[in-house]
Structure formats: structure tokens, C-alpha cells
Specification:
Strand order of the largest sheet: 1-2-3
Helix content: 40-55%
Number of strands: 3
Radius of gyration: 14 Å
Oligomer: single chain
Shape: globular
Number of domains: 1
Distance between the termini: 17 Å
Number of helices: 3
Order of helices and strands: EEEHHH
Largest sheet: 3 strands, antiparallel
Length: about 100
């Protein structure tokens, strides 16, 4: 496993809902689940889909809308690199290796 990169990470926001919780990686996407772990798993799945799509198709921006925060692009690039090497993106997203069966 690789060492966790110490770069900027978008903030995480947890919202409790009547049907579980929503874990949002602000500015990117969110995960929903009946538990925090399920929401984290959903978030990671969505992030993987997003970064691998962008990695394969490339990024393009409209001239009518300013590009996203460069830190966000760097974060996505790092996730794509990790995923492209078959590594787990969780340590980069959540800041540390989750414990087995525990919350992120």
C-alpha cells in the first residue's frame, strides 16, 4: 500500500437523515447509506466512477464558466493515479486507513 499523500482534501460533511445518512465530499459528490460505513462505501464508489471516467475521457471546461478550484483538480488527479495503480483511495479521501468493520 502507498503512503497517504498530504495534499489538500475537500471537506467532508455528514448529514443524518430519516433513512440513514449522507456523507458529502463538498464540491464533488455524496454517498448515501443506512450507516456511516454504507454512506462512505457509496461515496467511494461514486468517486471511483467519477475519477476513472475523467481519467479515460479527459477534462474539458466551458469558456463561459470558470474552471474549478485547482486544488480540487489536483485532488481528483491524485485519486485517479491511485485508482489507476489499483490502490485504495480511502486513505486519501478520509485521511487514514479505516479500521476493519469501522467507520471511515
Amino acid at each position: 500500500m502507498s503512503e497517504v499523500i498530504g495534499g489538500w482534501t475537500p471537506p467532508l460533511r455528514l448529514d443524518e437523515r430519516s433513512d440513514g445518512c449522507r456523507l458529502t465530499l463538498v464540491g464533488l459528490t455524496h454517498g448515501d447509506g443506512g450507516t456511516l460505513q454504507a454512506a462512505a462505501d457509496d461515496l467511494v464508489a461514486k468517486l471511483l466512477s467519477l475519477v476513472m471516467s475523467w481519467r479515460n475521457a479527459g477534462l474539458s471546461f466551458s469558456s463561459e464558466v470558470p474552471p474549478p478550484d485547482p486544488r480540487l483538480l489536483e485532488f481528483l488527479w491524485e485519486l485517479g493515479d491511485l485508482a489507476g495503480r489499483g490502490e485504495d483511495i480511502r486513505p486519501r479521501v478520509f485521511g487514514s486507513e479505516p479500521e476493519a468493520g469501522g467507520a471511515p
